[in-house]
Amino acid sequence: MERKGLGFVGFRTLLIVGSIVFPMLVTFTLLRQNSIFDIGEGFSKINVMGGRAKNAVTDGLKGGAKNVTAPTRGEVHNETHVLEKEAQNVSAEDKRGAGQNITGSEVVLKENARVGIPGILEDTPQRNTTPDVGPKNYSYADVENDPSPSTSIGNVELLDGLLASTFDKGSCLSRYQSYLYRKPSPYKPSPYLKSKLRHYEHLHRNCGPHTKSYHRTMGTGNRSSKKNVASKCKYLVWIASNGLGNRMLTLSSAFLYAMLTDRILLVRFGTDMVGLFCEPFPDSSWLLPKNFPYWKNWKNVETYENFRKNDINTYKGFLPSFLLVNLQHSHDGHENFFQCDNSQDLLQKVAVLILTSDQYFAPSLFMIPSLKQELSKMFPEKDTIFHHLGRYLFHPSNDAWGLISRYYEAHLAKVNQKIGLQIRVYNTHRTPHQTVLGEILACTHKHKLLPELDMQKSVISPLKNQTLKAVLVASLFSEYGEGLRTLYMKKHTVTGEIIKVYQPSHEERQRSNDNMHNIKALTEIYLLSLCDALITSQKSTFGYVAQSLGGLKPWILQKAYGETIPDPPCQRLMSMEPCFHYPPKHDCMGNGIVNITLLFPHIRNCEDVNSGFKLVNLS
Ligand SMILES: *[C@@H]1O[C@H](CO)[C@@H](O)[C@H](O)[C@H]1NC(C)=O
Ligand SMILES: *[C@@H]1O[C@H](CO)[C@@H](O)[C@H](O)[C@H]1NC(C)=O
Ligand SMILES: *[C@@H]1O[C@H](CO)[C@@H](O)[C@H](O)[C@H]1NC(C)=O
Ligand SMILES: *[C@@H]1O[C@H](CO)[C@@H](O)[C@H](O)[C@H]1NC(C)=O
Ligand SMILES: *[C@@H]1O[C@H](CO)[C@@H](O)[C@H](O)[C@H]1NC(C)=O
Ligand SMILES: *[C@@H]1O[C@H](CO)[C@@H](O)[C@H](O)[C@H]1NC(C)=O
Ligand SMILES: *[C@@H]1O[C@H](CO)[C@@H](O)[C@H](O)[C@H]1NC(C)=O
Ligand SMILES: *[C@@H]1O[C@H](CO)[C@@H](O)[C@H](O)[C@H]1NC(C)=O
């Protein structure tokens, strides 16, 4: 009874506050939306010349679009328009009944209420308003150890028990809403992985920042200590390097390593990472406090190389408390023997490891003999490491989630199929944009991801086929999105399907150090991961993250040189796991690794980087 009454009051408050806040929000949303996504601006034309591309596909290009001026920005591409229309239909009364449908803007606008203008809803009773987002009929599964039944969350929302159920929903909307946007994963986390995660959360709670244990360990500064091994809490401090894709890959590897070695993962986020992700661990923080003794001068601590080279006796029992482990590919010719038990035995003696890397080094953990068995128990399906850990760790912050969910609902929610295109062009290859575009078409047509264009101007009416496909293009260059959009606007498709092309943002060059850039990058990665099929570029960590989060095996575009479209244009990956680009070259005895598969059946050379390693599932 009481809860019902409270609920009513809360609801009324929401109504009143909503009616005041709503017009502000709409304005705010529109302003933000427009400033953040710049679709097609700056594009003027694409000259699709014949070149030497002989492929039938490119004939389409040639015939269709010799000097195509960009189409007007009408239709759905006028985002202002869409959002305005949607906004008109929002009634404060959320009478929507059942279903998983992602339709209205109710969800979006409520999100904004919390996201956009912090503090404005502060006097609204949290408990009664927050869980109101999303569809009504959650499938309540019994969630173990849930202290508050009133906020209990279904197993579907928890991604089959991967996520802890004890978070406040409002603080991180994406955590429990992602299931509305992504199909349920066919890959289930093992019970053992789930128990390891819950165990880790417990440990993090007890050892995290601002706990006694934390102060005790970090307070030692650079003094050495004999008590290291005995100290209860050990830490792994992660330092960012390289772009967002690399960072997400190394973070997940670091987290796995932390779990396996009973360390607490703490991240040193600069301003470019702050506000990007939610806190992943309940009742604690993964952010390294700024008073960490080596916040700035982390490069000055004793290095892993020295530690390994020196005779342990030179330390006379006073081992370093802090150790820098640099696993960046450029650092030591990737000859660090990190994957060897004797190295691991040494590392185990140090209380705080400061780790910096730009690599997905998770496969090397599978090479560590003492960890192999544990890993197999955690991941019976070996190609699901990033899929599970990525979905566990990386929840877009409310700001980022606002962008993702609004974009999704404006463009992708109602289409029958979503094709993600992630195009990274390396300057060194000097491949003209139209060659890449031709390659994309050759690939999508060959694998029936997109229909061919109808060159005969035949009489098929598009009305016959109501299938609507969306192509989401992520690239630094606008030419791809515009080129595709133009093609599919000029001609019908042979199947009569309607193709819509969207490119959320493009920046012409990659930057690595500002927060808005990373939020946009995360938005694109996440949107790609919500697609039904993916086409990605070689060696792109951006693509790896999207494919693994989405549980997708993408088609990967082959390297094109000059104006020749490669044949075959693309190749399907054998596993959704990211590639470890610069793996160890030697085994622990110092012998060159000739054939990794002979040593480790679950590891193969990557399709896109021959010398790289990736995990595969053996079925
Ligand atoms: C493309 O069309 C524009 C305007 O129609 C024209 O000014 C330009 O010269 C054309 N470019 C090429 C390469 O044909
Ligand atoms: C978008 O649509 C709105 C509303 O119809 C219109 O006022 C505005 O001019 C359009 N913007 C562009 C760039 O087409
Ligand atoms: C608003 O909703 C009504 C029915 O609820 C629908 O007919 C109408 O098309 C919607 N308008 C917009 C702009 O979506
Ligand atoms: C929601 O309820 C509808 C109708 O009762 C049902 O068909 C649907 O399966 C339910 N969805 C979930 C996620 O339980
Ligand atoms: C929700 O989706 C189902 C199919 O998934 C569809 O039958 C139903 O009409 C949709 N409801 C609304 C309100 O869009
Ligand atoms: C740590 O090392 C620096 C020099 O590297 C020294 O100045 C400082 O006093 C040391 N701090 C402690 C607590 O030993
Ligand atoms: C409509 O498109 C779908 C998907 O490509 C295709 O399977 C189907 O044959 C098409 N229908 C017609 C009438 O062409
Ligand atoms: C490596 O060994 C595997 C398993 O025996 C074999 O299938 C594969 O062809 C070998 N690869 C190379 C490059 O020799």
Any overview of this molecule?
This protein has 619 residues and is α/β, with parallel strands linked by helices. It folds into 2 domains: 169-393, no CATH class; 398-615, 3-Layer(aba) Sandwich (Rossmann fold). It is 36% helix and 10% strand. The chain is built from 20 helices and 14 strands. The chain has helices at residues 2-36, 56-64, 79-88, 106-115, 126-129, 173-181, 191-207, 212-218, 244-260, 304-309, 341-347, 362-365, 369-378, 385-393, 398-412, 433-446, 479-490, 515-529, 541-550, 596-599; strands at 45-47, 67-69, 234-239, 263-268, 322-326, 352-356, 417-423, 468-475, 498-502, 533-536, 555-557, 570-572, 603-605, 613-615. The strands form 4 sheets. A 6-stranded mixed sheet has the order 9-8-7-10-11-12, sandwiched between helices. It has a 4-stranded parallel sheet with strand order 4-3-6-5. Strand 8, helix 17 (479-490) and strand 9 (498-502) form a beta-alpha-beta unit. Residues 1-7 and 26-151 have low confidence and may be disordered. The structure holds 2-acetamido-2-deoxy-beta-D-glucopyranose (8 copies). One 2-acetamido-2-deoxy-beta-D-glucopyranose (NAG) binds next to helix 20.
Quick description:
The protein is α/β, with parallel strands linked by helices and 619 residues long.
Gross morphology: globular
Helix percentage: 25-40%
What small-molecule ligands were found? 2-acetamido-2-deoxy-beta-D-glucopyranose
What is the residue-averaged pLDDT?
77
In DSSP terms (H or I, runs of 4 or more residues), the helix count works out at 20
The neighbouring-strand order within the major sheet is 9-8-7-10-11-12
Rg over CA atoms, rounded to whole Å, is 26 Å
